Amino acid sequence: TSLAAIIINQSAVVILAGIFSSAMGPYAYYQQTRLTDIKALQDTHEAVQEEVDRLHASNERLGKNVNELTATVDRLEEVEQALDTISKTQGKSVNQFAEQVEKNKSILKTMQANLKGTVLQNLLSIVMSSDADKDNIVDAEEVDTMIRRIEGISGVEVHDDRFRKAFSGNSVGSL
Questions:
Q1: pLDDT tens-digit series, residues 52-66
Q2: What predicted TM-score, i.e. pTM, was given to this entire model?
Q3: Structural domain boundaries of the chain?
Q4: Which of 14, 56, 59, 90 has the fewest CB atoms within 10 Å around its CB?
């Protein structure tokens, strides 16, 4: 319609108004895409923040588990020492004492296996959540995220160069 007005009435005002109105459509489209991009960035930021919060909670839970298991191991060692003392003072048979020690060792091994299972579960969770584009390939940016998350676990140390060499470009399933 602005082109028809320019052709029919060739005054400067009509020409300028036609040019400006013709430019408004692409400009409005450009502004709309910018608004859409901002909304997508906000959504991404919220998703990342939720993941950080979840990982922080997992890290705290792991820290508590480690502290509890450490305390339990200490208590078991004290019990073992107490049993040793009791068996010596009461003259109990060495066989009974050995059975009790073996039982305590079994309990300790079970507790260590549970701790390993919890740590492995959290590491697997970190690996899966680090695959941001869900293509089951760990690229360089995703390895950076994975290293940062793993280093956030209390007591875990990562050798960056070896870790990157081992994981960059590999599929999640091969890890």
A1: 998 999 889 988 988
A2: 0.39
A3: 2-130, 133-175
A4: 90
